[in-house]
Amino acid sequence: MRKISLLKIVTGYIFILILSLSVSSCSTVKVLPENATRLKGNKIEIVNSKKIHKNELEPYLRQRVNSNFIFFENPFIYVYNWSNGKGTWWDKFVQSIGRAPVVFDSISVLKSEENVRNYLESLGYFGTSVSHETVTKNRQTVVKYKVTPGKRYKINSISYAIRDTNIRKIVLADTTNSLLKVGDFLSERMLTRESERLESLIRNNGYYNFSANYIFAEADTSSKKNEAQLLLRIENYTRNESPRDAKEHKKYIIRKVAIYPDYDPISYNNNPNQVFKDSCVFPDRVTIYNSIKSNFRPEVIARLNRIVPGQLYNEKIANITYDRFVSLRNFSGVNIQFDEVRDSVDCTIRLTPSKPQGYKINIEASNNSNNLWGISPAISYYHKNLFHGGEWFTLGLMGNFQFKLNDNTKSTELGISTSMSIPNFLFLPDKIFKIAVPRTEIGLSYNYQSRKEFTRNLISLNFGYNWKMGDRFYYKVDPIQLNIIKLFNLSDLFYQSLSDPFIKNAYKNHFDLGAGATFYYTTDPSPNPKKSYFYLRWINNLSGNFMSLFNSHFPLDSTGHRTIWNTQYAQYLRSDFTAVYTWKIKERSSIATRLNIGCGYAYGNSSAIPYEKLFYAGGANSLRGWQSRSIGPGASQTDTTFSIPNQTGDFKFEVNAEYRFPLFWKLEGALFIDAGNIWNLNSEESRSESLLKSDSFFKTMALNWGGGVRLNLDFVILRLDMGVIAYDPRYSKWYGFDDFLHKNTYSLQFGVGYPF
Q1: Is-contact 150 158, C-beta < 8 A?
Q2: How far apart are the C-alpha atoms of 240 and 505, rounded to whole Å?
Q3: What average pLDDT does this structure show over 547-560?
Q4: Tens of pLDDT along 354-369?
Q5: 668 and 709 in contact (C-beta within 8 Å)?
Q6: With contact defined as beta carbons under 8 Å apart, do 472 and 521 qualify?
Q7: Which fold would CATH assign to domain 21-148?
Q8: Less crowded by CB within 10 Å, the N or C end of the chain?
């Protein structure tokens, strides 16, 4: 008899449980009140329009049906129906883990009609009609909405009527940036956005009291069929006033600026006159008030501020100042207040410091069908204001342990790192950064790796700068990146058993001095995007070129390479590109995709890039059907000279797709597909099966599928994924469902956060 794994038994029981829930609790209306029905579905019919999609209107329906479980009805609805209505602990338990059926509400249907109508009207479909009908069967109701979009008008002309001559000059000088264009469809939404743009434009030119309520829009649709003549008026009275209430628009100058960097609302309210004991006035007449125990140097606060006495009021400058203080990451509250004083305004900036110290703990774990376990704990301490200038100091400890139960196979990796982030450019001017706060990053780390075959020591030092341009662009430049790699206890038997010269070269001492640069872009900088978003990251490293200028002063080793301190220096180019696009299907459902391409090329003094810069595949954030570093390069067999897999290459290509959906409570589910591999590029130094070749590229692509669950606690996401191998290039073999959960066909991955 063939042995059946425990995991397979558990999986079978889970499947039977879900099936039994659906069969034994076939009613989803058991717990509904008498005469109530369950909302089974919403159907939308759009009449005479192909430009409007149903999924565009669904968010405006007040009642949503119960979410589906992947492709069929959520079984947790049936769990909810296990309750007996007696209010016992059993009822509370099944209702806490189940999903209550949505009770049909006729009032919500009428509000849904109104929402859809208002939405389409805002897009310019004037005269839209929305109606509905309901179909009820077996106490389950389906609502059918019929939507008939109204008529749209194209803008054929835009004119302005502005009474205030100064405001007229400001507006007419900026018409090229107008959101309204001749030929566009007239819409309430675009009129609102243009009014907001004009409001900001005028407020940025000193008009502190100006608002969009002074802006009027008039559209004449009678002159030409399906066309509108648009008139924008800016009056001296608001929409809530009459012409007799008109008053002159005034420009305001900043009179005083006071900053409180240690503002505590509780202490201030209890004793407002005795909290702040010291003050200093800077050359630009900005006054900074310090508390008895000030946490910040005044010159740092003054450098971040962009609001100064004597300048015209400018809302943009105020927002920039706000963003700069927030980006310091030292304040839990930033409040900028303006108070009108005749023809000027006083500015008060209150900054509430956040907790300066803390720690973070992270852990990842994995297991595969070959009984190889991996655990990676990490802990770090941080201080956000070490020298009272917003300097962010971190000290971290990490470990990576891989082992087999009942076996002496093991790998140990330990690391310690420290870094300092300083909110200005050391040795460089940073006055060009009017918005973002540039930073200088300094890091030092030591890494120890012990395996049966070798012991590796790595000392790293980096010095660089990073900054933002707006909310969407991030740049990082490291003029100094130093890595010193030393190997000890290298097994002669292991080293001689390496048949691939390319791999052999990676197991040498290296002196790696170079530079790096990172570029990052995102369409949505918010921590939890509500809409579909895209981001890309491009990391580049260049090493050894500076060292090569002094080749004549460096001795040659037995292999013909230049050395420093008896260690060969590395010379290479490495680039790593990642692009991620996430489609938001519903509020908590999405499809995430990733493309990752990496390439390293050694030249000059190196025949291969250092081991630390090589690429690998597999693990919790890569090909999840394989353990980390256990696949590739190309169709190469796993190197048995390693007690624990350690497959690497200098080229990587990987694509991933993942469907994320809600389950119940804070649990989320996922279905995913991963494909990719690593390869070698050097045809002279590497075996043919490991090489990147156009004719065998797709044949050497690894493929896996799988699913997982995530516990979303808002502040952290804990993830458990099981990846199942579909195609293994090592054996040119496809695995079917019959091979599911057999030895060497799956891997369990535990991680923190989403994989991408």
Answers
A1: no
A2: 78
A3: 91
A4: 999 999 998 888 776 6
A5: yes
A6: yes
A7: Ubiquitin-like (UB roll) (3.10.20)
A8: N
